[in-house]
Each structure stands twice: as C-alpha cells, then as structure tokens.
C-alpha cells in the first residue's frame, strides 16, 4: 500500500487504490518524464538516432541492468517481456517424441500454453508438478518437483515468484533438484526484480527471464533474458532480424 508521500510519485487516479502492480506496472512520474524526453529526441531526428545513437543507448542500458543483477561471465539480452523471452528459449530446444517438459500447477498460463504448443509440435509432452496452496513448505515444493521428474525430462520451467498466488518459491533448492537429475532449468522470474535480491550467476539456472516493468518501475515493455554461457550458442530470438 502506498503512503500519501509515495503516492505523489505516481500518476494514479486519486479515486482508486491500485493493487495490481504485478499485473500492469506503473512507472513513477520521473520515469515518465525521462521517457517523454527520449521520445522527443527520437522524433526530432529519427534517422540519426537509430543510425548513430540507439545501439549505444541500448548497450548502456543493458550494462546497467547487468551491473544490478550480477550475471557473471554470461550476458543478458533486453526483451519486451517474459513471455517473449521464454518463447524464444522454447523454440530453440531440440525435443524428441516422448521427451518431457516439466511445469508446475503455479506456472503462468501463457507460459504453460506455449510449452504445450511446442510439445505438440515435436511429439513431446508436458508434465505438471502440483504445488500445494496456500502455504506450501519448502520440503513439499522440492518433493513435488523430484516426484515429477523422469529420465525423459529435458526442461523444467520453474517460477521464482508465482504470478496469481505471489508465492516465493525455494528456487535455489528447486534448481538443484533438477540439476542433480541432469535436467535443464528455465526460471520465470517475472515478478522477482525489485522484490527479492538477484544474483543470476549464483542461481545455477540455465536460463532466467524476468520483467522490469513491474517492480523495477520502468516503462512497460522491458524485460531481460539471461542465459548461462553454455546455453547461448543455440539460442535464437523469437523474431529474426538485424544483429543476429
């Protein structure tokens, strides 16, 4: 809940109480002003901006994000949102018939749909591990993952903080359960930046994708994709264009 002082930092309608920042984040007024200034700069001279300045600005922003999130020797890519990034990863996988993708009962709906679509295309299947609600213990979470894994599991998609229920899952331990079984791990961290400390290289995931337009208070349409250095070679963006 915003205090009267902090409420002044945003452009909220004074007649509403906004409680869905995790769904549709709102940038503070100061950020909105900077965005407007950048938009004016672009519109004043589009060609020079895109030809001479855009890439440098992009790389500066990416470096600042990386500095905050400690990606180690690996790097990050700026993306529109988590769904965009996870689709890129799923489409880069080489799956065989009867391979399995593990999700949980807390997996965000759009991600579950994407995983099932990719599975149908390749003859693989999606296995759902149940996560108890409302207050699962760490042991219950770990046991659920361990029970759902099989020798055919090629990828586990795990939430750091769940979308609909706001549970902070024991992500480090869940990742380790998968790694002990030789299973690659993709973490949906949509709600984590700004909520919990993040050290990407210390998590030992294969991929970590998150949004910055929720609790990091940047304009909508900004997130990042981190890939361990061993997982970068075959990773392709969802849309192929310049810079590939």
Series of H and E elements:
HHHEHEHEHEHEHEE
How many β-strand runs?
7
Instruction: Give the rounded overall mean pLDDT.
Output: 92
**Strand numbers in spatial order across the main sheet:** 1-7-6-5-4-2-3
Q: Span between N and C termini? A: 43 Å
Low-confidence stretches: none
Q: Tell me the Rg in angstroms.
A: 19 Å
Explain what you see.
With 244 residues, this protein is α/β, with parallel strands linked by helices. It has 8 helices and 7 strands. The protein has helices at residues 4-7, 29-44, 46-69, 82-92, 109-122, 138-148, 171-180, 200-203, and strands at residues 75-79, 100-104, 125-129, 153-159, 184-188, 207-211, 223-227. The chain has a 7-stranded mixed beta sheet with strand order 1-7-6-5-4-2-3, sandwiched between helices. Helix 2 (29-44) runs antiparallel to helix 3 and helix 6 packs parallel to helix 7. The radius of gyration is 19 Å and the shape is globular. The relative contact order is 0.16. The model has no long low-confidence stretch (mean pLDDT 92).
Features:
alpha/beta, seven-stranded mixed beta sheet, 8 helices
Task: Please give a quick description of this structure.
By secondary structure, the protein is an alpha/beta fold. The protein is built from eight helices and seven strands, in the order αααβαβαβαβαβαββ.
């Amino acid at each position: 809940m915003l205090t009267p002082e902090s409420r002044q930092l945003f452009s909220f309608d004074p007649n509403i109480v906004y409680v869905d920042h995790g769904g549709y984040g709102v940038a503070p007024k100061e950020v909105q002003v900077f965005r407007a200034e950048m938009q004016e700069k672009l519109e004043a001279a589009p060609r020079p901006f895109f030809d001479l300045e855009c890439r440098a600005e992009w790389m500066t922003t990416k470096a600042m994000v990386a500095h905050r999130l400690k990606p180690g020797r690996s790097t990050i890519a700026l993306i529109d949102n988590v769904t965009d990034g996870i689709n890129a990863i799923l489409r880069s996988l080489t799956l065989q018939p009867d391979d399995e993708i593990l999700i949980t009962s807390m997996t965000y709906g759009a991600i579950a749909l994407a995983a099932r679509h990719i599975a149908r295309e390749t003859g693989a299947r999606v296995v759902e591990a149940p996560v108890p609600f409302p207050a699962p213990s760490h042991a219950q979470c770990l046991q659920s993952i361990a029970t759902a894994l099989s020798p055919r599991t090629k990828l586990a998609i795990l939430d750091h903080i769940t979308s609909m229920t706001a549970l902070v899952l024991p992500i480090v331990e869940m990742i380790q359960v998968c790694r002990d079984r030789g299973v690659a791990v993709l973490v949906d961290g949509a709600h984590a930046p700004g909520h919990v400390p993040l050290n990407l290289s210390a998590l030992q995931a294969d991929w970590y994708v998150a949004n910055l337009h929720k609790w990091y208070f940047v304009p909508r349409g900004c997130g990042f994709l981190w890939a361990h250095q061993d997982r970068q070679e075959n990773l392709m963006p969802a849309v192929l264009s310049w810079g590939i």
